[in-house]
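Session log. Operator J.P. requested a structure for one protein chain; no other inputs attached. Running the standard single-chain path with token output.
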Amino acid sequence: MNQQLEKQSYAGVVCRSCRQPIPLPAIVVSMESEIESDGQSLQESSRGRVFSLRCRACDKEMPYRTKDVTEFEGTPRPRVSPARRKAPHGGAGEGFSRAASA
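Structure written below.
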């Protein structure tokens, strides 16, 4: 039972802030495939093709060009919502004890 596992890969860019890979959303991937199907070279189309992505690691958003896109091995890092990133708040009066009611 020797099965060869296919290496997973995804298209993405390197974050300009923390240098972690950022996977491309489907709309940017479709934009790239349109460019290839139109027969334009990547250099011709990269002048005007700019998109912004938010890093999943440092949460900073930066502009990238289609020429910045590279292929990464493995699976993309899961997205963590900002609510889960921070510790949950206890609400008003956090850190204070309640006074006994008489």
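Operator note: Residues 51 and 64 are 5 Å apart (CA to CA).
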